[in-house]
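Reopening this ticket.

The earlier resolution said the output was attached, but the attachment link was broken on my side. Pasting everything inline this time so it's all in one place.
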Amino acid sequence: MGTVLSISPATKKAMDADVVDKGDKSLKRPSMFVSLSWKKLVASSAKKSAKKVTPNPNPPCVQVAQRNSENTRKTLQTEERKQRAPIPVPVPTVPTQKPPAAVVQKQGSSPSVVSPRRIVIQASTGELLRCLGDFVCRRCYKLKELNSGEVILWFRNIDRTLLLQGWQDQGFITPANVVFVYLLCEATLEESVASPAELQGAFQTCLYLAYSYMGNEISYPLKPFMIEANKDVFWETSLGIIDRLSGKMLQLNADPHFFTEVFQELKSQRDCNEASLDR
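Inline output:
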């Protein structure tokens, strides 16, 4: 009718033991997986820690102290080099000599230095021409009929003739040129002149040299300057003036102080003439 299975106590124990063994095996497998995973984690941590940079063993305060010490040492070395280097000595120079300034001292006061005054002189062309004419009349005092206007007329007639004939584009008579003419006349005209014609010839010879030296043109004709009474001695007088006055003619143009002296001398001729000329 049916089959009856009978289990003995020994068999049951064996079966229970077999079940227990299977359960133990199933529990022991996860422990192996955990063990392997832990080993991998430890190894990975060791690699990461090995890649970290080793920290500076010296703290920041120690680094600052070291830098300060190095800077101090460099500063001391620089100062020592400066002390050992040669000291530059200025080369003495000779000072330019200057004219001593005028010293003015009042009673009961300390001396004060006064700078030299600058002398300013001025005169018109017409005034200088009158001074020149007065000088000629004063120098050639033997010619009683001579007057300064006549001398000025000799000068103006020559200048006008050269303009009308086209020998020059502008007039020659200027203050500077009148001073130049006076320089030549002062050294050429003599008191022994015996006639107005002789005086005119000598005066116009001075004019010819002045035009040739100071004029704007390359050359000038002889006819306006040379008169019949002076033909024989015109060139002789010209060469004599050049020989004696070449240096002063150059100096008059190059040295302002010399020009000022001649200018003042010419300007004073009118005063001297009015004070001492006895006609």
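Reporter confirms the inline version is readable. The radius of gyration is 62 Å. Residues 125-276 form a domain with the Cyclin A; domain 1 fold (CATH 1.10.472.10).
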